[in-house]
Design a protein that fits this description.
Number of domains: 1
Number of strands: 0
Number of helices: 5
Amino acid sequence: MEATSQPAPENAPNRYVSFIDIDFEGNMAVVLGHLRRYIDDSANSNAFWDRFKQRMEQVEQGSGGYSDKLLLMHSHVYYMVELFEDHDDEAALRDLKKLEEECF
């Protein structure tokens, strides 16, 4: 993933100023959609991603303890980057970067 240092447009959401106009749920859903394409495929399945899916299910059912969906995704961001890079999935990397910049 290539880093860019372009300034954000003036009307772009900025989490340091306000959470207004930041679609946390939508951003997470898009990234989870990309992620699920890979981790739900038995060819890419492993114990690590199986545990992630189990924890996500607990969070979505409200039994995740101290964790929430955003925290769980944040704590796995580097693994998601690696997975998306392994599959040359530029769209997933772009959407993950947006999630990171706006929500983490």
